[in-house]
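Aim 2 progress update. The chain analyzed this quarter is reproduced below.
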Amino acid sequence: MVRLNIRHRTTYHYNRNVSLRPHRLMLRPRESRELRLLGMEIIVNPDAVLTWAQDVAGNSVASLTFRSMTNQLVIESIADIELDAVVWPVFDISASAIFYPFHYTDDDQADLGLLASPRLADAAGKLRAWVSAFVRTDPTDTLALLKDINFGILSWISYQERDDEGTQSPVETLERGWGACRDLALLFVEAVRTLGFGARIVSGYLHNPSQEIKGSAGAGTTHAWAEVYLPGAGWITFDPTNRSMGGANLIPVAVGRDIRQVMPVIGEFIGLSDAFSHMTVEVCVIG
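Predicted structure tokens:
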């Protein structure tokens, strides 16, 4: 078990005073058997009214409502957690799902819903052809198949940090041959959904004390990865950026069907079109 302090500071700079519309924050670490939240504080400047709610996926969502105009917005979250995720987890998969293909129960399929169907266009079948190549036998070992896809992405795609907004589609990532962590996570999720697996995107933090893990230039950063639902074992973590499986070094904050649903900070302002100057993000995860 490791105790960690997470500091996440987002600053928006404007060229002149603007009116801030309500902002949505997903910054509270998602508690589980492996993660215990010891304390959390959110500091906002200018002052705002903060309220909490849970979304349909069980994520903790904070909403900010502002009362004054400003030329700068600072949102800082400070969280203390205990992380107890093993490096080499063992998963107790139900006998019915040990080999692929398998069928989810009617209840599981109904609950997974859109999480088990590809969400993005693949008109030419490029993604389907790419992921189908990993299915070498019928039937095949389910966990081995998912590991191969997770491990194989970096054999096709080069990891590159990308500061611009948005996420590449899986087909774009395959065609370009490079992508950031969110691009690789989305490629993995859409690929396994193409095979019928229930999968979701996860956003959170990467704890990188050795500074050897991809996706982080320092001791910690925001990060994106994936989870796949397997009967018996539940949601299993896959991080294609680091070819890893399980929650070691990963601090989940939000899960969702699409990367847009799990962004840390979303909001708008009212002002002239050239009012926005730039944004800075600082993250530190230390033990």
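The mean pLDDT is 94. Residues 142-156 form the longest helix (15 residues). These observations will guide the mutagenesis experiments scheduled for the next reporting period.
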